[in-house]
Structures are given as structure tokens and as C-alpha cells.
């Protein structure tokens, strides 16, 4: 299920309340459990997604899959979400390498510094990282631009005059908050991660992230409809900025094909890329954006198996006694103008007026979940709806029969599922809806297939659930006729329809949705159009390399040591790593007899001396700042370190303020490591460090390089590429092999002549000609240049 429109990672419709029990009077009491955990996908789900996740995953949504609330006593309660998005992505969040970033559900104004730190530390235990927002930011970014401008326009509804008058202020807040999310992403992740951004509140974020990290794998999924081009372009100021924001992603996902088509129309109308409709992609100047539809599903097993739950059976028993054999028509929605609540109540009123035989035999149960109660349009909608419900009950009600049972509240899952099981008809008729998961939840909750779904043609679910009774919310008579048809449908027919739709829902559940999106993101980022021309070094390619190497008169092997050792440090013990380094040392020693070999690293001179000081090779430390030529003992320095004391005093100060962090002093660079610090302190002080050091860096011509939980300060203009160009300038080579893995290596790949063999280690977008996936494969490749034995494929 997607984020609900309050932004929480619960059901799209928010029909049960996370971590709460709601009584009949609508007042909320906290549940006894305070456990903070995510649902498991089960063994099937974990296996299916585990093989697909090639890099660490950063999930970014407006809200975290938890809510933080402050009790009157001042105690902070953290409630886990039991809903869709958290469930669908639960196996990812269990991996310590993955992170979920979002607002924790409470304004920062209500929290002290210590409380913010406490929340951050608690959430970090479960791989969740908060973006703290003030009440003013929430008013203008969330209630303002997101929900008073984007939400109505994307649902083909008018924007209020009040919102239109404040449009500029709202837009500024929208951009600012998107940038706050960006800062947290950059602080908490490295360039080797994939980022999955969710929903309309964060449409600027993909482009912001692409600008900061050109090689990042970025996916975006929109959980609401995407409007037709004429509506989007005509009514949405800054629409081109939003589209440009989405085009920062490698993959843009929608619920259904019609939304995808609308997006391509808008891109074409703005002239922002070459649209390939056959392959549903957009070709930009330097890369490609894949566009696809991913109909979101539900946690099918949870709803289907709930009928066996004694608590659900107890609720169902009470409901059957309450409604005394009458046929139940059920509507379940958040309070929202897009849901068509008044239209449905009016259709029911007409049904009773035109069909007296139904009076006393049916009941409309309207479950309306409170939503955005601070927005005037929502307050007015509630007044209109409740007035109409009162009118119907006064006009047609009797001593023994109330035509409409209206509930304005959330329900616990057990009662909601019992309602689904009880209902003879689900009356799901939004004016416009991205998907509408209530329709799917209703069908999944009916093990005996004894119910009829009446569904709006303007709900995304209608493109999947074609066996529903499809109605047009713009024509009130179709709603009435749809109800009549549903109430009179023979059991054989409605069971056939329900069975067909239930099979569809089961096969495309929330777990498959998440798996399919991640798989598509990997394919999009590894595509040839995005600078990834191969997926591996084949047997044939390895043989060609060997042949070219042997026929060359002069050869150069340029190896990034960090790319082969870093993955091993994460997964292997010290003894295995030492063995690996010893074998690499042996191979390079033999290779250097007739080949120029360069070993480059971001580490210090002493580290390279320790590992490879005995070899007759070129050693390059600190990304090109220091160089030791073959046969020499002395290192050459290309930059002065006079600046270090002036920067170091500031870094040491912030290290003291950030327990767990430390400063590494290299010969000509400084690195602030904060991977072991509190995420809250690290994020806060990282921004302050940049603010303080940037003016000094400009004076001393220094670069600030954001890494994975690190900030490195080093001289400008000196890098691996500088070393490479000097080598080529000093010598003429017939064969060049360059092996690397990070963002700096990509510029290095681009600097070499086309005939050079550039090799990327690992997954992700690359400009390299070839690719291997594991450090061991680098050793295997080097052996091919030394051994006279058979050539084997480097990777399967």
C-alpha cells in the first residue's frame, strides 16, 4: 500500500490507526504494546528481494513508517506502522546497510534538542532517520503546496483562492523542504547506494540528488494520479520545474498505464526530452529515464487469513447481530474531496427514493477517516456530508431501521476486516484515485467470495479489476444503477467475478510490487543508454583482452586499490584480507616485470608503502596528491599541507561536539569520519562544518568531498585523473587497462582514449567499457596477463 494522504506509511485510505485502538466514540487510546518492529515478508519475500538488491537502498518518503507522539506527560511514544509501504519494504529495512528517511510525524517546535536527539537515536536502531520540520514548514510545504496545490490538481479538482494567493510562499517552502531531505540523504549515504523516492511531496528531490551525485541510482514512484497534459501545463505554475525534478530519476513509476501516458505527454509538451513511447522512456542529452507502470498491491495474505483470527471472528459476530440480516453496503475512505463521499451518499438517497422495496432491507455503512482537519475545504466537506447523512436518516429512517450508519474515525484492523467480510457490496466510487486499495482489501478479505465490488472507472484499480461493476462518478445515475445491479446480482455471478479478481490481487501483492520496482531500477541504471554498456566480462572479452595485451609493445595497468579492498573489508575477516592482499602483491610484482603498473588509493603513503612498497610500480596516495615512481624511495608531493592546521582546529572542535566521530589526518588531506556517531549530531554538525569551512576552503583552493559517512577536505585539481594524464604524457602505450569503482573513477574512465580498456568493479551506472562484480574477479583478470594457461570467463 502506498503512503496515505496524511503522509503516513499506512494504508492509502488510512482505515485503521497505527498502534491505536479506536472506540465507538472516536476517542483514541494507546495500545499496550510499544514494540518497534516491521512486518516480515516471510521466507519467500526475503529471498526474492535479497537477490535483487545490488547496492544499499535509501528509501525516502514524506513520512517514516512510524509515528512519534508526545503524551501530555511529556513522554515520547513511537508507534510502528502496520500498513502497506512499511510491509512491502520490510525485508529491505532489516538490512543494516539500508536506510529509511522521512519526517517522524511531530513538529520540531514541540521538541527540545535532547528530545530530537533521543528520537533520532531510537529510530536509528531500526534503520530509520528523521528529517525534522518546523510547524511553519509543515503548514507551507505539506498543508500548503503539497496538499492545497498539487493534491487537488493531480486529482482534477480546483485549487482554492486562498491557496492560489499563497502559491509563491508555498512553492518556496516546497523547494526548501525537498532540499532538507537532500541534505539528510547526502549526510547518511555514499555514492554506492540506490535511492527510492516516494510521492508528490518530494518531486524536486530526484533532480537535486542527480546534481549532487550524477552517478546515483535513483527511482521515483508517484502514489497518486498524474493529470492530463492540458490540466498540468495550464493550471500548474512551475510545472516544468516539477517535471525536471522527476527527470533526475533513472526510473519513474506510476500505478497504471494512463498516468504514465499523461506524464510522457507533459514531457513532450514541455520539450524536455525525446519521448520513446514504444519503450516508454525519455532520452535526455546525456542519459535515459525509464518510465513504467507498477500497480501497487496489498499484503494479500494478511487480509485473506484474517478470517481465521478469533478476534476478527468475534467482531464479525457482533456486526451480524447489529445489522440483523440486512444487506450491507460499505464505503471506506479518508475524508477528502477526491473520494466522492457526498456523491455516494446522494446516490444512496436516490436509490431509496426510486426503489422503495429496498427500504428496511439494506444499510449503508460509511466509515470516514479524519484527514487534514486543519484545511478549510476538508472542514466544509465534513459539514456537507454529515448534513446529507442526517437528511437521509430523517427522511427514510424508522424506529427499527437507520438507513445510514456513519462513523467518523479510524478502526482497528480486526473490526475493519470483519466489516469487509460482512459487507455484501463495497461501494468504492472516488472522483479520482491513484489506485484505491480498499477495493483490493475488500476482495482479499472475502474467503467465500460472497460480495460485489462497485468501483469507479476513475480509480486506478479499475484498470486491473475489470470484473467489478464499473461506474462513472460524473453520472449519478450510473452509481444508482450500479448499486441496484450489485444488490440483485445472482450468487453464481458475483462469486465468479470475485474469484477472478482475487486471483489477480494475490499474484500482484505488495511484495511483488516492491521487488518489481527494484528490479526495474537496477535494469534502468545499468542500461547502455545510461553509460553501462556491459553487464560483465565474458569469456570472449577476456580472451580478446589477453590477445591485445600479448601483442602490445608497451602496456599500462592502472588499478584503484580501494575498489578491490573495500568490499572485502565489509564481509571478510582480517586473515582472508591479508591473504588477498598477498596474492595481489604477488601478481603485481610479476606483472611489473614487463608492464607499467600504477596503484592508486585514497589512503596514506604509509599504507601503500606497507602493502606494496617492495614492488617496482608507481604508487599514488591520497587520490593523486603524493606519487612514488618505480625504483624510487622518495615521494613527490603535488600540494602543500600548510592549510591543514587552520582547518584541523575546526574539525577537532566539531569532533568533540559529536561523540563517536573522529578526524583522520593524512599527509595532505583531512577526513571527518562520523559513521559511529549519533545520526542526529552528525547531520546537525555536518551542516555547520560546511558553513564554517567553505569560506576557508575557497581561500586555500580546497575541495569538500562528501563520502559515505565521511567528509574529506583536500586540495583542488589533484586527483586520479591528473596522475593518469601525466603518465600518458610521459609514455606512449599500446595497451591500457584501468580498473576502478567510484564516482571519481568515472571521470578517469572518460579521460582515457577510447581504445583503453576501462573496467568498473561492481554495479551501477558507469562509462567503463567492461565490468566485473567482485574483487576476486580483478585477481582473475590479472592472472590472465601472466599465466600461459587457458582463458576462463572472469564472471559467470
From TrEMBL:
GO terms for biological process: trehalose biosynthetic process. Residues 8-20 have a biased composition (Polar residues). It holds the Pfam family Glyco_transf_20. GO terms for cellular component: cytosol. Residues 1-30 are annotated as: Disordered. It comes from the Eukaryota. SUPFAM superfamilies: HAD-like, UDP-Glycosyltransferase/glycogen phosphorylase. CDD domains: GT20_TPS (cd03788). GO terms for molecular function: alpha,alpha-trehalose-phosphate synthase (UDP-forming) activity; trehalose-phosphatase activity. InterPro entries: Glyco_trans_20, HAD-like_sf, HAD-SF_hydro_IIB, HAD_sf, Trehalose_PPase. In the N-terminal section; belongs to the glycosyltransferase 20 family. This is Bifunctional trehalose-6-phosphate synthase/trehalose-6-phosphate phosphatase. It comes from Paramacrobiotus metropolitanus.
Amino acid at each position: 500500500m502506498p503512503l496515505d494522504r496524511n503522509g503516513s506509511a499506512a494504508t492509502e485510505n488510512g482505515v485503521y490507526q497505527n498502534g491505536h485502538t479506536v472506540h465507538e466514540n472516536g476517542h483514541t487510546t494507546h495500545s499496550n504494546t510499544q514494540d518497534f518492529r516491521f512486518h516480515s515478508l516471510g521466507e519467500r519475500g526475503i529471498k526474492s528481494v535479497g537477490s535483487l538488491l545490488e547496492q544499499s537502498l535509501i528509501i525516502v518518503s514524506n513520512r517514516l513508517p512510524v509515528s512519534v507522539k508526545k503524551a501530555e506527560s511529556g513522554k515520547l511514544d513511537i508507534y510502528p506502522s502496520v500498513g502497506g509501504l512499511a510491509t512491502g519494504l520490510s525485508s529491505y529495512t532489516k538490512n543494516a546497510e539500508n536506510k529509511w528517511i522521512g519526517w517522524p510525524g511531530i513538529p520540531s517546535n514541540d521538541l527540545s534538542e535532547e528530545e530530537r536527539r533521543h528520537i533520532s537515536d531510537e529510530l536509528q536502531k531500526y534503520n530509520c532517520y528523521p528529517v525534522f520540520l518546523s510547524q511553519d514548514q509543515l503548514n507551507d510545504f505539506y498543508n500548503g503546496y503539497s496538499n492545497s496545490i498539487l493534491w487537488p490538481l493531480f486529482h482534477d479538482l480546483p485549487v482554492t483562492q486562498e491557496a492560489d494567493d499563497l502559491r509563491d510562499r508555498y512553492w518556496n517552502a516546497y523547494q526548501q523542504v525537498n532540499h532538507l531531505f537532500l541534505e539528510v540523504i547526502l549526510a547518511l549515504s555514499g555514492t554506492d547506494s540506490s535511492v527510492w523516492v516516494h510521492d508528490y511531496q518530494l518531486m524536486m528531490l530526484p533532480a537535486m540528488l542527480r546534481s549532487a551525485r550524477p552517478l546515483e541510482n535513483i527511482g521515483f514512484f508517484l502514489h497518486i494520479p498524474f493529470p492530463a497534459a492540458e490540466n498540468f501545463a495550464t493550471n500548474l505554475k512551475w510545472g516544468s520545474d516539477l517535471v525536471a525534478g522527476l527527470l533526475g530519476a533513472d526510473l519513474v513509476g506510476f500505478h497504471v498505464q494512463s498516468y504514465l501516458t499523461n506524464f510522457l505527454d507533459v514531457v513532450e509538451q514541455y520539450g524536455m526530452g525525446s519521448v520513446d513511447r514504444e519503450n516508454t522512456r525519455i532520452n535526455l542529452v546525456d542519459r535515459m529515464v525509464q518510465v513504467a507502470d507498477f500497480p501497487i498491491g496489498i499484503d494479500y495474505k494478511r487480509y485473506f487469513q484474517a478470517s481465521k483470527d478469533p478476534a476478527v471472528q468475534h467482531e464479525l459476530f457482533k456486526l451480524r447481530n447489529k445489522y440483523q440480516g440486512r444487506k450491507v453496503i460499505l464505503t471506506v475512505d479518508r475524508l477528502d474531496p477526491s473520494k466522492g463521499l457526498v456523491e455516494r451518499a446522494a446516490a444512496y438517497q436516490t436509490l431509496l427514493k426510486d426503489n422503495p422495496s429496498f427500504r428496511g432491507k439494506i444499510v449503508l455503512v460509511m466509515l470516514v477517516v479524519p484527514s487534514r482537519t486543519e484545511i478549510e475545504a476538508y472542514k466544509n466537506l465534513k459539514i456537507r456530508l454529515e448534513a446529507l447523512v442526517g437528511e437521509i436518516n430523517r427522511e427514510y429512517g424508522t424506529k427499527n431501521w437507520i438507513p445510514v450508519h456513519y462513523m467518523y474515525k479510524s478502526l482497528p484492523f480486526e473490526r475493519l476486516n470483519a466489516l469487509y467480510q460482512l459487507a455484501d457490496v463495497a461501494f468504492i466510487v472516488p472522483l479520482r484515485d491513484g489506485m484505491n486499495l480498499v477495493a483490493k482489501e475488500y476482495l482479499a478479505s472475502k474467503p467465500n467470495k460472497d460480495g460485489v465490488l462497485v468501483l469507479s472507472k476513475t480509480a486506478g484499480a479499475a484498470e486491473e479489476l475489470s470484473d467489478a461493476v464499473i461506474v462513472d462518478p460524473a453520472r449519478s445515475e450510473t452509481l444508482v444503477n450500479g448499486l441496484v445491479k450489485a444488490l440483485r446480482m445472482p450468487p453464481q455471478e458475483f462469486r465468479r467475478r470475485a474469484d477472478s479478481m482475487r486471483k489477480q490481487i494475490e499474484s500482484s501483492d505488495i511484495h511483488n510490487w516492491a521487488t518489481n520496482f527494484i528490479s526495474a531500477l537496477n535494469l534502468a541504471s545499468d542500461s547502455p543508454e545510461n553509460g553501462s554498456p556491459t553487464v560483465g566480462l565474458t569469456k570472449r572479452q577476456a580472451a580478446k583482452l589477453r590477445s591485445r595485451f600479448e601483442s602490445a609493445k608497451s602496456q599500462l595497468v592502472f588499478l584503484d586499490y580501494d575498489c578491490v579492498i573495500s568490499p572485502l573489508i565489509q564481509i571478510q575477516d582480517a586473515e582472508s584480507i591479508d591473504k588477498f592482499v598477498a596474492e595481489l602483491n604477488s601478481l603485481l610484482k610479476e606483472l611489473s616485470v614487463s608492464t607499467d603498473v600504477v596503484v592508486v588509493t585514497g589512503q596514506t603513503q604509509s599504507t601503500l608503502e606497507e602493502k606494496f612498497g617492495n614492488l617496482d610500480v608507481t604508487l599514488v596516495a591520497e587520490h593523486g596528491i603524493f606519487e612514488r615512481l618505480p625504483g624510487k624511495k622518495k615521494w613527490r608531493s603535488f600540494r602543500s599541507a600548510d592549510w591543514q592546521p587552520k582547518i584541523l582546529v575546526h574539525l577537532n572542535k566539531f569532533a568533540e561536539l559529536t561523540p563517536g566521530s573522529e578526524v583522520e589526518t593524512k599527509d595532505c588531506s583531512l577526513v571527518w569520519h562520523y559513521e559511529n556517531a549519533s545520526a542526529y549530531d552528525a547531520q546537525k554538525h555536518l551542516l555547520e562544518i560546511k558553513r564554517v569551512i567553505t569560506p576557508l576552503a575557497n581561500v586555500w583552493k580546497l575541495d569538500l568531498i562528501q563520502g559515505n559517512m565521511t567528509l574529506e577536505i583536500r586540495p583542488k585539481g589533484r586527483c586520479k585523473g591528473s596522475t593518469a594524464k601525466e603518465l600518458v604524457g610521459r609514455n606512449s602505450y599500446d595497451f591500457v587497462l584501468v580498473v576502478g569503482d567510484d564516482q571519481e573513477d568515472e571521470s578517469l574512465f572518460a579521460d582515457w582514449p577510447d581504445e583503453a580498456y576501462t573496467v568498473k568493479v561492481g554495479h551501477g551506472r558507469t562509462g567503463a567499457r567492461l565490468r566485473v562484480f567482485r574483487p576476486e574477479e580483478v585477481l582473475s583478470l590479472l592472472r590472465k596477463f601472466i599465466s600461459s594457461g587457458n582463458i576462463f570467463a572472469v564472471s559467470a
